[in-house]
Amino acid sequence: MNRLEELGRRVAEEQDRALIGVERRATVRRRVLGSASSATRRRAVRVLAVVAAAAALVLAIVALRGSRERAMTFTVGDDAGSAGAWISAPSDRSVDLRFSDGSALVADPAARVRVAAVDAHGAHVVVEAGALDAAVVRRAATSWRFGAGPFDVRVIGTAFRLAWDPEATRFTMVMREGSVLISGGIAGAGQALVAGEVLVADVARGTLERRPVLAPSVPSASVIVEEPVVVAPPAPAAPEKPAVAIAGWRRLAAEGKYVEALESAEKHGFSSLCASLDAPGLYQLGEVARLARNHARATEALTTLRKRFPGDARSAHAAFALGRVAFDGKGAYSEAATWFETYLREQPNGAFAREASGRVIEAHQRAGSVGAARAAAERYLATWPDGPHAGLARTIVKN
């Protein structure tokens, strides 16, 4: 049944109920009027019927619109999903997310994602680390967004694979059906990607590559592409620590085994690694600790990076990561706001500028700093009026 038929059905039901009421009121009216002419009584009934029908039409439209505007629901595996909650897939299996509109996501083992918001038209999904496969159902007014690092993906109805490696700051998008618009970071204002194309963005190197999907060597029902991997920088010379020890935690990190990677780093001296690694290695170590949810070790590695390499671009990236540790890990929202603002001071046009600006709004709001949240929201809207935090920013400005 299409929307017009549904509207007609509801109008008919409301009219039937209204006319029953009209007949009852007409009976009462006849008793009251008594001597009134039959023509007068008929006119009164007709007027009441028209008024009731009009009211029924309005009620039906409102009811139908209300049913259409209800936010979608979703499940994570067999459990009901909750917007805003982080979803961490186990290291040995994937996790299915199914939405009430028929759309579905499959998060790879060890992936970490968050359904930040859900409404009647779609969802805003954040990929913190790892990869997912998505099949989004096209409907009227469909509006889905996927965020990964500094990148924002707008989706109408399509199937694709998205991967984000936070340590290597590498974004990969493989289109299977439909098309998307990718913006943010080195993607700029927008990169349209269509079925059969791959986009790989390396934030650290500042490179953006587009190419056709590699044809599979054997027939397959799905697209076969090379999986994104962590490109680890060379280990520095450290005679007191075997190179195999450094390679060990990096290899585990590349496999998405962040807890095991951190354990490996601890066995060979976490603080010693902080003192010997170069800037890329320190940033990677800090991200491993953050993703393993060891906030103390993440803070140690990232603050060491900022002290040892103050002029390196990754020093600013470390400030952004420290903001995430404070916000997502410790719930220290004022501290998080300070770190995000530090990143923006050091790299106002950096790869994470838009995301940091949005997280500043969230941090001030949760810290109860109303004035600071409003000021941050106004700055955000002036720069990114269509960004992923624009809805939150407008709500704060209006209030």
List the helices and strands and how they pair.
Layout: H1 3-33, H2 38-68, E1 74-76, E2 79-80, E3 86-88, E4 95-99, E5 104-107, E6 112-118, E7 123-136, E8 144-148, E9 151-155, E10 158-165, E11 170-177, E12 179-183, E13 191-194, E14 197-202, E15 207-212, H3 243-254, H4 258-267, H5 270-276, H6 279-291, H7 295-308, H8 313-330, H9 333-346, H10 353-367, H11 370-383, H12 390-398
Parallel strand pairs: 7-8
Antiparallel strand pairs: 1-2, 1-4, 3-6, 4-5, 5-7, 6-7, 7-10, 8-9, 9-12, 10-11, 11-14, 12-13, 14-15
Helix pairs in contact: 1-2, 3-4, 4-6, 5-7, 6-7, 6-8, 7-8, 8-9, 9-10, 10-11, 11-12
What's the CATH topology name of the largest domain?
Answer: Serine Threonine Protein Phosphatase 5, Tetratricopeptide repeat
Count of helical regions: 12
Total number of distinct structural domains: 3
Structural class: alpha+beta
Shape summary = globular
Describe the structure.
This protein has 399 residues and is α+β, with helices and mostly antiparallel strands. It has 3 domains: 66 residues; 139 residues, Jelly Rolls; 156 residues, Tetratricopeptide repeat domain (Serine Threonine Protein Phosphatase 5, Tetratricopeptide repeat, Alpha Horseshoe), CATH 1.25.40. 47% of the residues lie in helices and 21% in strands. It has 12 helices and 15 strands. It has a 15-stranded mixed beta sheet that branches. β4 and β5 form a beta hairpin. α9 runs antiparallel to α10. The radius of gyration is 28 Å and the shape is globular. The relative contact order is 0.06. The N terminus is likely disordered.
